Amino acid sequence: MSVRELGLPARAPAGWLPDRVTIWEVGARDGLQNEQVALGVEAKIEFLDRLAAAGLTVLEATSFVSPKWVPQLADAEELLAGLARRPGVRYPVLVPNERGLDRALAAGCTEIAIFGSATETFARRNLNSTVDGQFELFEPVVRRALDAGVEVRAYLSMCFGDPWEGVVDVEQVVRVSRRLLDLGCFQLSLGDTIGVATAGQVERLLGALGEAGVGTEALAVHFHDTYGQALTNTLAALRCGVSTVDSSAGGLGGCPYAESATGNLATEDLVWLLDGLGVEHGVDLDALVSTSTWLAERLGRPSPSRVVRALSK
Amino acid sequence: MSVRELGLPARAPAGWLPDRVTIWEVGARDGLQNEQVALGVEAKIEFLDRLAAAGLTVLEATSFVSPKWVPQLADAEELLAGLARRPGVRYPVLVPNERGLDRALAAGCTEIAIFGSATETFARRNLNSTVDGQFELFEPVVRRALDAGVEVRAYLSMCFGDPWEGVVDVEQVVRVSRRLLDLGCFQLSLGDTIGVATAGQVERLLGALGEAGVGTEALAVHFHDTYGQALTNTLAALRCGVSTVDSSAGGLGGCPYAESATGNLATEDLVWLLDGLGVEHGVDLDALVSTSTWLAERLGRPSPSRVVRALSK
User: Fold this and answer.
1) Backbone dihedral region of A174: left (phi > 0), alpha (psi from -120 to 50 degrees) or beta?
2) What is the phi/psi pair of residue A246, to 5°?
3) Testing the interface with A: which of B309, B311, B312 to mutate, by most A Cβ within 10 A?
4) Is the dihedral of CA A110, A27, A288, A263 positive or negative?
5) CB of B166 within 8 Å of any CB in chain A?
6) Cα–Cα distance for residue pair B190/B157, rounded to 1 Å
């Protein structure tokens, strides 16, 4: 058989996997912000509580982005006021700027996430800034958060492909990643925002980050399933040593019947994989499927998750 | 980082991939036989011709199973009589027994596929036989086919999970696999008929087959996407040295809105992965997506392939 080597070496030894994966559940934030139907605040609170009851321990609850941009999450304060926080469960929130941080601190949040762009075009369109300029935005947010005892995660968008710029340069992603972690963020989530990446790209980026001294313990992965690659990319990342994976219950975040189906990796499909691999995750799959089925009814459409469709009657 | 080893070692060196993958396109057979809408013979012929024009070189064209069981493919003779075979394209057909072989030979077929079961329950339900008993059925079919200069592929169903028996014993699969190849079949396609397998199981089975002297050059993989694992399993198999993959254009073979979505791995999603990995396949993705979009309109439902949905306007 003729074979060939693939890019840079993976980080972890071949065939290895983490004993346990932390699922960073983004359904209530990244999922709902992209759904056409806006849920009421009571339904969101019930959704979060059911996710916690199903065993998920990191629930990104909402976003303090301006309601002008994300009307679906305009009820962030009301949601956090009504949410009964469970012991052992973290409820990070997305924060775009100092104004968002003020709101998050006022709402009693103890963990936030900022979001940066790996590409100039997306930095301009999403943040009205540049790749360098965005750090002026982030620096006071992270500093003030850390001073207040609030932990900060960073998202990095467009780590693999960009709809305007095409394939994204690995060295550019490494540079921005290092700067985000250097700000004091405890974790960096590498995002395939438009869902175009494939497994080889994932391995190459993780390899390049490792060469640059960014270990997988500081990394998470965030895949969208636009081209059906999300779970395959996730396995590639686990094999490289990543042990935190972003996903959304039921694959929320993109209508499967719309032209552009850009839903997140479905948490259920991830759990099915982890169960098969014998990797611990702490989630009760039946309870999760039942939650996603309930939510899909509220949203008026079937879940795009294959596992949800297969297991729900 | 705490890590652990996964089952048996993979067959090929870590991180390696085949230079080229042969896509065994099963849409016209495994796909259409599971669709609720029966296509007319002209549409099937156009479908096959468009698949060939898109660069696919192995097209499983139809089945000589009794029309009583698979009414969707009752027009096998008419289809083969009307099909303009392209040079360089193979058109294997499925054959269940000697009666089916007679029909295939009469239709001028030069390549057939038989299908066996790895489990007792499925052997009884699908073949009205047993795991041992099925070989009495296959032996004269394969012998007569080879005598007539017809090449024979074998499918093995339920290699990972069985709806009645649960997880399938690896040693049982290895035993049946060896017997099928010993009959004289040139290739064995390992089927996850109900789509429950995960990557670790795939690696363990391929490892066990290797230990038993069954090299990956005689193997193909055949995954269904019921639980969203088909592409991830495929990558695991490629990494182990497999270079023939079964898939169906547009993910034909299971309605995404039915309770049980059991479609095959979508050829387009596989092509997207292979393109990203730099593995050759010979398929024109745009022409394939356009074919699947055309067929989905005929079938009256959107394609379950993520790539088809993302690329079709």
Assistant:
1) alpha
2) -85, 140
3) B309
4) negative
5) no
6) 7
Separation of alpha carbons B241 and B10, rounded Å: 8
Q: Which of A198, A257, A276 has its CB closest to that of B272?
A: A198
Element (H, E) at B114: strand B111-117
Question: Torsion angle of alpha carbons A264, B272, A207, A270, nearest 10°?
Answer: 30
pLDDT tens-digit series, residues A204-248 = 999 999 999 999 999 999 999 999 999 999 999 999 999 999 999
Instruction: Please tell me the predicted confidence (pLDDT) of residue A313.
Output: 63
DSSP for A177-220, written as a single string: HHHHHHTT-SEEEEEETTS---HHHHHHHHHHHHHTT--GGGEE
Bridge-based pairing state of the strands B219-223 and B187-192: parallel
Chain A residue with Cα closest to B307: A227
- CATH for the A22-311 domain, from 3.40.50.2300, 3.40.50.11310, 3.30.450.20, 3.20.20.70: 3.20.20.70
CA distance A135 to chain B (A): 30
Q: Consecutive 10-residue runs of chain B (313 residues): their mean pLDDT?
A: 33 79 97 89 98 98 93 95 97 97 98 97 93 97 98 97 94 98 98 94 96 95 96 97 97 63 89 96 98 95 90 81
Q: Which CATH class is domain B22-245?
A: alpha beta
Residue A159 has pLDDT above 50, yes or no: yes
Rounded to the nearest angstrom, the minimum Cα separation between B251 and chain A is 11
Interface test with A, best of B223, B229, B268 (most A CBs within 10 A): B229
Q: Is B19 on the interface with A (CB under 8 A)?
A: yes
Sketch the domain layout of chain A as residue ranges: 22-311
A144 pLDDT band (50/70/90 cuts)?
very high
User: Residue A185 catalytic?
Assistant: no
Q: Determine whether the interchain pair A15/B2 forms a contact, defined as Cβ–Cβ distance below 8 Å.
A: no
How many Cα atoms occupy the beta-carbon half-sphere of A36 within 13 Å? 10
Encoding tokens for residue B295? Answer: 């067929």
